[in-house]
Design a protein that fits this description.
This protein has 435 residues and is α/β, with parallel strands linked by helices. It has helices at residues 2-11, 48-51, 56-61, 68-75, 97-119, 139-155, 169-176, 213-226, 236-246, 253-262, 264-267, 288-296, 301-308, 330-339, 343-350, 375-386, 405-416; strands spanning 12-17, 21-26, 34-37, 40-42, 63-65, 83-84, 127-133, 161-168, 181-187, 192-198, 207-209, 249-250, 269-274, 277-281, 317-319, 322-325, 353-356, 372-373, 396-398.
Length: 435
Amino acid sequence: MEEELRYKLKYTYGEDFGTGYFKYGPISLGEAPRIIQSRGLILRDLPESVKMLIPPEVVKRGIVVGDDVSRYLSSTRDMMRNLRYPLHDGIIKKEDEDSWRVVKELTRFGLSSFYEQAVNSGDFRGFLVVMSLSALSPDYMRERFIDIHMEINQEYQGKMIRALTAIDQPFAVAISEKAVTCMVVEAGHGNIQVVPISYGPIRDGIVALNRGGAETNAITREILKDAGYSDLAKDEYVVEMVKREAGLVPKDLGTAIRSAREDPKRFSIKIKVNPLVTVELSESAWTRFLIGEVLFDPTHDEFKSYVQQGRFSIEDVTMGDMVFYGEMNMADAIISSVRKTPVEVQDKIVSNIILSGGAFNWRAPPALSDVAVNSVDKVRIMIGDKVPDLLNRLNIRMVKDPQYSVWKGAIVYGYALPLSVEWNDKAKEGWIIPR
């Protein structure tokens, strides 16, 4: 056992397959994984003039991920149609072979980044890989991810992966927070997963929302257009920066907007994108509150005006047996989830609500504390307004590192799970040993 734990301390390897970003790396990285955008560029139909500019091994593989994507896009703009973001709301369609191809390359890219160093260490017999997927992933997804890892292992003559297991993203968060009975609200780029947990996910209580970081980006883009920055609104880097610097979560949207309109100077902001580009929101500074509010409650009239103009859309989506609710507010989603759990664990669940994911990472400037709050206080206020009697029982907290908590939990799970535990397809736990 001691030898096993020593091995795990070096070669446990975590993967977080998010809609917006792929986080990966071994336990030796410590507090933070490596991170790249969850996307890939398929190099099909290349003209000879372009092939001459690309390394032969890249042409042969026919796909690039990570930082290389932007490099090739800049020289082959006609190939934008071959840019793939494989995960939508944490899910890949069964027949979407291009997306599966991108996921496989992301997986290979991550593992191969650490393989040579591991081999040179002398005692390496393969990574102990823990892949974390959305709690909403259908069975075919998990099976396909397993197959992908086994195929990559074969490409390395069976020396890349010693064992493989899988974990739901919210459960990984619970593990990283040492929480046995709790609720994890995981807000990523593509969706929000509301997952009650008692020694494992209570699947009947899962509620999914069809919004996340992508929707905060979308409303930011429309705000930039209205403020006279239509050209900059096309640039994802600018949109992301403006969202993070300007976005505010209101205590109450109506009150916050009135305050900002009465005193726009107090709420105005200048964002220096680079030495040549500055974005300023002054008279339209009240729109800063829309950026944060869309994540929590997109049913206000201010959002409906964008929807009516056809500039913004959040709709219910059905995938398999799961409905991703577009306009359900955060409080209703959490309360609905709790009500679907056994009565005897409901008090424990509401007393340990954990917020995780980059989409919850909002600042509340002290100078605006009368109208702006952080995500924890926002959720507490919303639930208290719906069910005042719950206020004394509520305990809501944010994970220390919202972006990395899933990866950390995957690492902890892999370290703690004995290698003697074989994969159980019904329980969806245990180690798969490549044959």
